[in-house]
Amino acid sequence: MNGIAGARGEPSHIRISVAWASADVACLIELDVPAGCRLADAVAAACGAGLPAAVAADPGVGVAVFGRLRGPDHALVAGDRVELLGPLRVDPKVARERRVAHKRAQASGLGTRSGRGRPRLNGPGTRPGSTAPASDGDG
Predict the structure, then answer these.
(1) d(Cα 13, Cα 16) in Å, to the nearest integer?
(2) CA–CA separation, 103 vs 78, rounded Å?
(3) Across the 139 residues of the chain, what is the mean pLDDT of every consecutive 10-residue run?
(4) In this structure, what DSSP letter does residue 38 have?
(5) Which of 29, 53, 58, 77 is surrounded by the most beta carbons within 10 Å?
(6) Does pTM surpass 0.85?
(7) What is the CATH number of domain 13-85?
(8) Are 84 and 18 in contact (CB under 8 A)?
(9) Inter-CA distances, 46 with 35, 58, 60, 78, 103, Å
């Protein structure tokens, strides 16, 4: 609901949502705020509507609109989703290095060809189930 229209037919209020999540709690608050509302005002209104004030006051929390970081003076429009973003738990560079190391460790598993495919059962150049080297088909 957009509220009562102003003098020029523009809505006097707009509907937005404010989202925040932690490891154990997710919160989505729908708000009707005055048209032309700024991001900082919307966060303050969300605190009055049930968002923990400690979350908004945390200096490590970033504020975004639809996933894009915005400043406190950003003007909101109807339908915007304001997201409160917690601090990073792991530096992205460190996280990537860990993923690469993990994949390399999986790929270098014992008994596999180049870390891919099925494991060799009887060593290089042998057929599964035999102890003789595989022939090349020339006889």
Answers:
(1) 10
(2) 44
(3) 53 89 82 90 85 72 88 92 83 91 83 52 57 54
(4) B
(5) 29
(6) no
(7) 3.10.20.30
(8) yes
(9) 16, 15, 18, 16, 42
